[in-house]
Amino acid sequence: MISQKIRNNASISYFFLGWLFLLAKNNPNFSNPFIKQHAKIATKWHILFFVMYIFYSHFLSNLFSYSIPVIQITVDHCIDIAFFTFLTIFIIQGVYRGQRNDSPSKNTLDTQDMFSLQGNIFQFKEASEWERVILLLSHIPFLGMIVSKKYPNTITTTGVRASSIFGLLYLIAFTSRGFDSLSMILLFIGIILIIFLATRFFIYDNYLVYSYLEKIPGIKSIYQVIRTIPVYLWDLWNMIFGKETNVSFMERLINTQEKDQNFETPLRTYFTDANLPFKSFWIFIPFVNLVFLPKLFMSRTTRYVLAIGQGLIITLVAILIGVFFSFTSPLELFLLFPICYGIYTLETDVFTRIPVIYEIYALLNMLTFGLLKNTKRIQSIQKQDTQVSFKME
């Protein structure tokens, strides 16, 4: 039975004190696992709230400064109220759960007993409210990438792919034409779809998975296809001039997939240092990830070598956009794709290669003649592995 004192401390952590409780490791009043569990949840969501609110207030608030007829209040003020209403509800709910000894989070979205697929119908009769929230969040652009990786199932996987396409279309419309009628229409459609999905997930116990959504390829598959196209076009060119007699795009694609697998195999055996001064997801947060720069030079075997390098490229691109355009330019929003994709894949694939960002990273390393020691070491290890494979054949 958890004492009332421990419950009170767990509830207090939601009043922006969770981070302080986590630092007090040697204090018996705060080292209880129940308190630490609530403190971690509170700290994570508080940081997420302030990052999102600061980002909105600096980059997006000016776009919603027009007044709503009749009630004479700006849309910007309504959004501000929504932010802090959510924060208030979160604190109240956290205090309530701390007192009731309820678990702040559940990780059962991938269990076979609770979720099942019968034909095209996805069943989730025993799902809790939190689990239904996760299903909904997976359909929100960018955020869905992170959610779907942590809680993989049919709905989250198809949701993140569809929402990523919608997010890309919206950003293209927004950056090219501003907050005009087209952007307003797309935003309205997105809100209507989220409301519809919320109704489905919270009222009903099943959801129809449309077959065409399952056919949408993932980012990694699209990346492999794009990298295969230039090689295939070169084969076609050679075939026209009689240098090639047999051309197959599928063979080239399989070859690209095998190269990707061979790219990671030698790296996993050499780069084994998993120690980091902060949580790994900060690697892909622009400017904040500069704290990982010493790790790139001090640890010769850090397994986050590629992730840190690509994270620093994201920061560099953000700086270049700010210098040549503006730090409040809508172009900065496109960086949400590599940021979320990096966080999305880091836990399961530490040597992930982010499309475009990795190409810039490799080009910069080549132009600087392997300035980063670990990057140069990657090339030498892969070269040795290729030589060994050639001798075995």
Model description:
With 393 residues, the protein is mostly helical. The protein has four domains: 97 residues, no CATH class; 99 residues, no CATH class; 38 residues; 122 residues, no CATH class. The chain has a three-stranded antiparallel beta sheet with strand order 3-4-5, with no helix packed on it. Strands 1-2 form a two-stranded antiparallel sheet. The radius of gyration is 24 Å and the shape is globular.
Shape: globular
Report, as a whole number of angstroms, the end-to-end distance. Answer: 64 Å
Q: Give me the side-by-side strand order of the main sheet.
A: 3-4-5
Mean pLDDT across residues: 78
Structurally, the number of domains stands at: 4
Query: What fraction of residues sit in β-strands?
Result: under 5%
Query: How helix-rich are the residues, as a percent range?
Result: 55-70%
- Compute the number of strand runs: 5
